[in-house]
Amino acid sequence: MNLYIVRHGETKSNIEKRYCGLYQSELTEVGQAQGLALNERLSNIGFDKIYTSCSKRAEITADIITEGAYSYKDPRLNELNFGIFDNKTYKEIEKHYPLQCTAWQEDWKGYVIPQGESTFQAFQRVKSFMKDIEKLPEENILIVTHGGIIRLVYCYVLNENLDLYWKFHSSNGGLSILSYEYENWSIKTIEN
């Protein structure tokens, strides 16, 4: 099985360097162009299944890539729920929520953001999704999701090691290709 994982196209929140989880930030013209470039690049792949998060930015990116082919919306692919930090810059979070920001810095894996979730909780969602993917017979699967979720997929593939989260980067419109064979994941390509 080949897993083609794409980070959604650029949004206004991305440009402004905002933590954007459940907030619905729209694709920019650049974000739409990133989807079109992937459409051209992946046009020779026959995707057996397509999955996206429930966010419009991921759904629209998938629609551009696949020219509107049906996709399954899976909430396990939603970006980390940033709760009270959602759609705020780091400086805004520091200013308006100094105690919560400090607690988050001190325990970025386990701290549950008020009205949101922890990175560890998001990882459990990703792990559940990946376990289900491993059971599928399909050959080529497209996933359009978010930067934080893609990092968590890498952590899952690398022996569920959450400490590796900050060792990877995922750009808007970036493509990663993973392979699952003989009950083993391998990372074939990471392109940003």
Automatic annotation (TrEMBL):
Nucleotide-binding recorded as keyword: no
Principal EC category: hydrolase
SMART domains: PGAM
Binding site for substrate: R7, H8, G9, E10, T11, K12, S13, N14, R57
Keywords, alphabetical: Glycolysis, Isomerase
E.C. number: 3.1.3.73
Domain of life: Bacteria
UniProt-listed SUPFAM superfamilies: Phosphoglycerate mutase-like
Single GO MF annotation: intramolecular phosphotransferase activity
Pfam families: His_Phos_1 (PF00300)
UniProt-listed Gene3D superfamilies: Phosphoglycerate mutase-like (3.40.50.1240)
UniProt-listed GO biological process terms: cobalamin biosynthetic process; glycolytic process
CDD domains: HP_PGM_like (cd07067)
Keyword Cell membrane: no
Active-site residue numbers: H8 (tele-phosphohistidine intermediate), E79 (proton donor/acceptor)
Family: Belongs to the phosphoglycerate mutase family. BPG-dependent PGAM subfamily.
Protein name as it appears in the record: Alpha-ribazole phosphatase
Native source species: Clostridium amylolyticum
Organismal lineage: Bacteria, Bacillati, Bacillota, Clostridia, Eubacteriales
